Amino acid sequence: MARIDVNHIRHSYLPNPKKDSDFALKEVHHNFEDGGAYALLGPSGCGKTTLLNIISGLLHPSHGQLLFNGRNVTNLSTQERNIAQVFQFPVIYDTMTVYDNLAFPLRNRRVQEADVDRKVRETLDMIDLASWAKKKARGLTADQKQKISLGRGLVRSDVNAILFDEPLTVIDPHMKWVLRSQLKQLHRRFGYTMVYVTHDQTEALTFADRVVVMYDGEIVQIGTPAELFERPRHTFVGYFIGSPGMNVLPVALEGRTAMLGSQRIELPGAPKAEAGAVELGIRPEYVRLGRDGMAVKISKVEDVGRHKVVRANLEGREIAAVIGEDDEVPAEPKVRFDPAGINIYADSWRVEMGA
Ligand code: ADP
Ligand code: MG
Fold first, then answer.
1. 316 CA distance to ligand 2 centroid (A)?
2. Any idea which UniProt keywords this protein has (predicted)?
3. Would 102 be classed as within a structural domain?
4. Separation of 205 CA from ligand 2 center, angstroms?
5. Cβ(210) to ligand 1 under 6 A?
């Protein structure tokens, strides 16, 4: 497997790109370590597939370089890059058996037939497809076909990386859980370099050691699931990860105090930002609903199983709070913010808190 360096890549689908918004990838720079399990997470249209296709060679970037183990591969073809890629929809040969579908990428690379047999059987076992080996692919359901696509991606252990582009979209929800944990186990066992594209935070957080969050053609944060949750670098990350997402409230900063309308909020430190307009970011888990603090008007209480989500109006803004399943909303509800969960953002980017 390989370390993959994405060096200052920009990409536009237009013939004469001029402004920043003409670029699907604005300036992407990241090193994928050899043997890492990465998720590329972001909303639809943020550039995930574009980046994945640039790594595999299906697309050539407008600017920048791609290195595999330090070697420049920017101008090499897909074949020469030796990458396995699994797409959103099954890419298999309907007329072949399941076995031959998996054998194909190996035979194509002139692997000895004895090794082909060993690898195919191993892979079929890994994803519980051994009993289908002799079946023709044609008669299978869409999610069974997608499992074969996954098998075709996993069968070649000599590749530089295995790339997955929203591979579980057509798989039914229960099977999704099973396959995701199998992919994770495969990663642990074989140390593959894996890049897994998804717009689903649960999928990203359960699969990856490192999550790369993309927004509008850029990487906005790279971190462990815990880092993304606790210290979002950008308000988008706070909002996109977590359910419900982080509350973002416009405030006026004055030293260690944030003014939210007429409310004074004492901060746990002095943010390293100019006095003036900034944003306060607080996850709903850090909003305390009780009898002390700032008065709010409750608009909605949603019981989501293990806890309740309360939507309330604070100084003309909607905020969300999470309370325990058995907690009741007080008659004259007020909120306070737990200092441990207070973040400050200037122009959407996180500002560090000084002493
Ligand atoms: P994602 O996979 O995150 O949904 P994509 O990489 O597919 O995002 O798309 C990023 C941006 O590039 C979007 O604005 C999309 O409309 C545009 N785009 C993607 N593919 C093409 C294409 N073949 N031609 C023109 N624009 C494209
Ligand atoms: Mg995509």
1. 37
2. ATP-binding, Cell membrane, Membrane, Nucleotide-binding, Transport
3. yes
4. 18
5. no
CATH assignment of the domain containing 327: 2.40.50.140
Domain that holds residue 114: 4-235
With a threshold of 0.85, tell me whether the complex ipTM lies above it: yes
Does ligand 1 have an atom closer than 6 angstroms to the CB of 13?
yes
Query: 90-127: string of b/e by CB count within 10 Å (b at 16+)?
Result: bebeeebbbbbbbbbbbeeeebeeeebeebbeebbebb
Q: Are residues 200 and 316 in the same domain?
A: no
Question: Which residue's alpha carbon is nearest to atom 24 within ligand 1?
Answer: 13
Q: Which of 50, 56, 200 has most ligand 1 atoms within 8 Å of CB, for mutation?
A: 50
Over residues 177-186, mean pLDDT: 86
Q: What is the pLDDT of residue 270?
A: 95
pTM of the model: 0.92
Q: Which atom of ligand 1 is nearest to the CA of 14?
A: 25
Residues 260-312: pLDDT tens digits?
999 999 999 999 999 999 999 999 999 999 999 999 999 999 998 889 999 99
The predicted structure's pLDDT at residue 283:
97
| Length reported for the chain | 355
How many structural domains does the chain have? Answer: 2
175 and 138 belong to one structural domain:
yes
Which of 235, 266, 288 is where one domain is finished?
235
22 and 153 assigned to the same domain? yes
Residue 23 pLDDT > 90, yes or no?
A: yes
Question: Does 47 contact ligand 1 (Cβ within 6 A)?
Answer: yes
Tell me, yes or no, whether 241 lies in a domain.
Answer: no
Do 333 and 288 reside in the same domain of the chain?
yes
